[in-house]
Amino acid sequence: xxxxxxxxxxxxxxxxxxxxxxxxxxxxxxxxxxxxxxxxxxxxxxxxxxxxxxxxxxxxxxxxxxxxxxxxxxxxxxxxxxxxxxx
Length: 87
Prior knowledge:
0% strand
């Protein structure tokens, strides 16, 4: 049981350690691209597609830690139910 708790704690740290810099980079990139496209290409039909993709990526980056946590918890439940897990 101690192994599972340690893996969950390390997993939470790694999720936060990886997600936060990537989320910041994604926000900066999104705002840069959005400003550029709205300035020069807002009249094109593809701009509305960009807005939909932008909304999806923003929602995806906000939900990514929760999805990773759910995956980690599913692993913990499956690992804890194994017959050979710690005796």
